[in-house]
Request: fold
Amino acid sequence: MKQPTHAWIAVRAIALLDDEKAEKNLVKLLRPHARKAAIGAWIPDLGAAKRGTGKIQNHIFKIMPYHGDEARRFTADKDKLCRRIGSRRRMSGFLRDDTTLKSNWWGKAYKANPAPGKHLANCAMAMSTAMLDLLLLGESSVDRLLPGVVRYIKYVDQEARTREEQVALHFFMLSHFIADACMPCHCDGRKLAGFDKGLHKEWEAHWSRKVGRNFKKKQIRQARMSGERILDQAREVDAAFELDFGDNSVPTIKKGRDLWLEMIDVCRASFAIASIVAPPGRYPYDRRNRKAPFDVVLSDENLPLRRDLDRVLMHDAVLNVAMAWKSVWKAASPRKKAKTASS
Ligand SMILES: [Zn+2]
Reply:
């Protein structure tokens, strides 16, 4: 996704957590820094995101048909995938309602082969694990927002402790990987989903136009406004995507699962969506250069599909970011002691 969309998704995720009212301290920490931390939401896409290589740190999960001998492992049962995705995410409803991908499509194995260091789910998982440590070592204003006591903190130099601004910046950086998983072209190994031209770029440009200029880097950096106002500005974009966050609830990652598994499932659903938009019957996986231009596959003639996907993908991008943040925050908060039978 492009810079304005990434910035908007992350700021909108704060607004969603604000509306949910369950993790007030997390919102208290992020909201005042939203404007300055926004750059974090697109840092991973910037040239020299990895110092020394001078290249963008590529982070992808491009799935293709798999013909190895572990076919069962890489076959996703539609029902089970939708159940894991959960009804709160719009992707599951969208896939359940879809009739274009038949059982023979779902019955096949698909797998991504990202090069070392580029695995999208690994990037997100690594970042979220680092966040936990940053939160453990927070300066007093960060520490105050989390329950429990970190006994060894007195041995950690003030200067070495995590400032609020750093926490916010890293939360925004984490949002980047999660939002990318909701972009179907990021999860489709066909040439037609490549980044530099065609469907991928055009679809993202379509979203940027809807997000509008308020979230462009210059505008957001120069805007003199309160954290509350920026959150409102993010909520105002909902109409362009016809978004409805329902009861504003933000689930956390279920017991026994982690952000890595969630990311894999979301990427798998994204790949299915890419295969609905550009059906493999017309755009085979093994055809190298076949293009699926945005104004063909998501043209005005396909308006209902385009609008559905605007709603589904943007809703889930925001929700997934809020879910991941909330899960990190909760993991950093010690659980209340369970009452024993005698007390
Ligand atoms: Zn990216």
